[in-house]
Amino acid sequence: MARFSHAKNPRIRHVLVCLRRGKPGAVGVGMVLKSIFRQAGVSARWVSEGGLARAKRGRIDAVVVGGGDGTMLHAAQSTMGWGIPLLGINLGSLGFLTSIKAGEVGLVLPEILSGRYGVSTRSVLSVKLSGGNKSWSALNEVSVGPQAGQLMVRVRVKVGGEVLTEYHADGLLVASPTGSTAYSLSAGGPLVSPKARAMVLTPVCAHAMAQRPVVVGEQEGVELSLSEGEPSAVVRLDGKKIGNLSRGGSLRVELGRPVVRLMHPAGFGFYGLARQKLGWSGAAGVSR
What we know:
It is a single chain. The chain is α+β, with helices and mostly antiparallel strands and 288 residues long. It folds into 2 domains: 14-116 and 266-285, Rossmann fold (3-Layer(aba) Sandwich), CATH 3.40.50.10330; 123-257, Tumour Suppressor Smad4, CATH 2.60.200.30. It is built from 5 helices and 17 strands. The chain has a 6-stranded antiparallel beta sheet with strand order 7-6-17-14-9-10. β15 and β16 (240-246) form a beta hairpin. The protein is elongated and about 65 Å long. It starts with 13 loop residues before the first strand and ends in a 10-residue tail after the last helix. Mean pLDDT is 91; it is low at 1-6 and 284-288.
């Protein structure tokens, strides 16, 4: 059961709601949300995933997102720079970014609407390919992987302008602290507190066992380029392709602005969430 502290914030009166269509339980959760909003006197505007980026008008105190972590990533990209916190309802499986279980909505949401909630500020990655002026932002990670028909990729890495190594792997990830619980974790990377200002370099199925994940500081910056003989590689942000890294080019990744703000029930903690989601047990997993 969720526990709440006595932290008090302004009441939430106006929300933007985006539920992932086709998700099991989405219709039922939508009905519960409408009932709760009506009883709490909250004005709710409902939008589709595709319409979320164009929905910033009027007063919005919070964006309520129903789905899995993929839906939350889409919502974060669509609302990047708004400064409006996102509240995630988990309609998926693992759900590190969604802090409320579907079955807890009736208990937890009224408390949050009344002002009993916390906000976690998450750093994002700033990404830029050489040869262009455009930059992108990613909440979880940027990945460099082989083109179709290729099995592996060789990526040279500089950290803070200093050569680190050449990774030979199925791919290479540069993850934010938030992204440390996503693809990077599946590839063997460490968990990083969202309060840390750091990035994680994580090879995916590295060819050599000595090639391990590396945590780098916020001021250092990471520069990726292809090794000799590599024609090109695919660059993805939060799982979506943005372009190709060509031989002779480079990819620059830094911790940057804007940030993403995630709402959660008061008393919610990153380590408790990790313990729950990863199924950790034993004496260290006992709540006090």
